[in-house]
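Page 42, continued from yesterday. The earlier attempt failed because a stray header line got pasted into the input along with the sequence. Redoing it now with the clean sequence only.
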Amino acid sequence: MIHGYNGRLLDIDLSREKVSEYLLDETILSKYIGGRGLAAYILLKELGEKWEKVDPLGEENLLLFLTGPLTGYYPGVKLAVSGKSPQSNGIVGSVVSSEVAIDLRAAGYDGMIVRGRAKDPVYIYVEGEKVEIKDAGHLWGLGGRETFTKLMQEIWGELKRKHLAREGLTKEPSFVYIGPAGERMVRTSAVMAKLAHAAGYGGYGAVMGSKNLKAVAVKGFGPMPPAKHPEWVKLLIKESWRILNQRTTFKQWGTGSGGFATGAVTSSEPVKNWQEEWHENRAMGQQNFEAHWVKRFWGDYGCPSTCMKISYLRAGDKKNSLTDTPDYELQAYMGPNLGIFEPRSCIYLSSVADDLGLCGIQTGNLLGFVAELYEKGILSEEDLGGIKPRWGDAEAFAQLMRSISRREGIGNLMAEGGLRFALTLNKLKGVDATRYLVHSKGIGIGAHGVRSGKDYLPHFSYATSTQGGDHTSAPRKPYDSSWGELWMTFPDSAVICAFNAIDNIMFQFLEAITGFGITRQDWMNIHAKRILSLQRIALLLGGPDIYWTPPKDDDLPVRFYEPLPSGPFKGKAVNREEVERERSEYYTFMGWDKYGIPKEETLERLEIEFTIPLASKISKRLEER
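This time it went through. Structure tokens are written below.
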């Protein structure tokens, strides 16, 4: 018996309409734990030899929905989503708050692998041991709200008919889904949950769309997989709740509390496509968003932090807009990044993105890029189909998002994501549009700048992250710091919410549930490096359309080397020599060579020898260049 696990994944081939099981053994689970780590292992084992040829939006790509051993026990719930990323051509471990993770474990599975492509739109429905591939023609083309409502009515109604008399009123089913943007394989589309939750980094909404998969709905009726030391787990749950209940900032304000301070105090918020990072407009203070809250405390399964708040506009030209707080990232990217300093407009744009199934960070990054190109005359009103994306014009940006999600006009080019769009513009316009794009490895930078040196990320962080612009997973010094890249692989693999992570308790949870005696030091020195080395190999294999050349592409956006033009840290910029030095030091620490390729002895020490031929292939390609 493997404690803390069911020991199997659902393995669903949409092309052949076949449902089977993928068995997991204890050796693999003890090495990769689950979620992000297990995804990296499965993806490279199955696709590694042909990785460069696998189209992320083609039938060969795998789409993984994974849980971890702490899911359902540790306070708060997450679901890990992964595959070959249509943004970076690497592997991104993207997470979303969703009870799908709990229901999968209660149904007897640790996750799901989706292969192939359905002939027509479908959704996957798991009800206990029963698994069905159901027609989704009536859902295809619907926005997030309609999709959520129809799925709830359809499945919840059936469940109540089946189980009400026999078992009492069961809890509602859970599901993740895509909006119109995902259906049309927009590379900045997200896997959505609960109207305003999203797994956005990586572009996995587009992968769902490429498989004609509209949604995954799950209802489990069993218990969590049994823990090895259940009484210890009970004590840890009690203690973690005690600690988390003392963290009042998130409970009161959510991450949206940073919407004003990140600009005014630390000068690290995107303003007009990162041309500036400072503003002191108090309209963006959280108290002004609070006026639109209709639900103050929103916690997903077992979460004491309740950091999400629901905003709803009851009247005016933006009436019926519904979204979360917005959280800090969307406040920034749908606010000052677009020259918008008014909460109603920010809520409206966040709501539009949610309903279309677009990642607010990635799409907001793209919109700011386009607005600057329009400002500089590189893109014209004619190019943009009559849309004038002037700073502060919320309706123009909403129109652009709708064009992207429908792939209409220039929206068809923008739907390929910032980097691919910029490369196309280079050819069409004869300019270097990429210098205005703030990205790393094809993934838009999170809304935390590094020029002032006052935010939590150091200068070199985005340059060396295996997940590109992902602000939640970037190196920090010392390298084993909490919230650094190595540390972050644990909550992403145990599949818990990082906001609820408690350093000295989460590793005890792992041992109490699984019996794996993995210490924090073990994780940082072995497990985290193993997972990141797998991700690094996949990233450098790349393909089929874009390949990364280190150390050239292990760098910051050009903009971060430009001095800040305003604010208390005016004139500050990133020092290129410092980035190069830190990058080299990080490569060495990880056991990678001068190009950031994991060395053979490193792969042997980490017991991932199967990747040695893949690393050799990367070395040979770089030497030939």
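Notes: The mean pLDDT is 96.
Reminder to self: strip header lines before submitting.
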